[in-house]
Write the structure tokens for this entry.
Amino acid sequence: MLKYALLDYVPQRYLRRASFDTQENDRLILDFKSGRRYATDKASRLIGKALSLMDLKDTVIVCIPASCQRTYNRRFRKFSADLSAMCGAIDGFGHIQVIGKRDKVHICGEYAAEDNVWIDEDFFKGKRILLIDDICTSGRTSDAFKERMESVGAHVRMAMFLAKTKNYRRTNKYQYN
């Protein structure tokens, strides 16, 4: 599966020495995660522009579920609808539900896609899927959700992220973009 991220996300511990552009990108990403309208609109435009040359008319856009339904709605409902309309794709948001609450991946360290996510198997069976998420750090969340989607008969083609966490090694800890 092809994975693609548009921006770099710099963890807070490195951000104080980052460039203005990097700090601005981080603010956008964090505001998107908080569900702020301007960030949702800007993120859908950024990803929509990146996908503009692809034919997505028979593709379902699916946002990887957050830790609870409330967060999933806040973060992805409008984004998914806007992006799908912009790209001519099918909006899969209403066919995924988060039941209950799970620990956040960055806190517990693992993502178990089957624990609290309901997927409309009849809807997704045989469909081409484009997965979308806000931040990719290790890729394990997207890999686990891809496997879950494929277990119900979907064909996941690509995962796209608003940002990829930039990791710094000890040797270049003072080099920031």
User: Anything to note?
Assistant: The radius of gyration is 16 Å. The beta strands are 2-9, 59-63, 90-91, 96-98, 117-119, 128-136, 155-165.
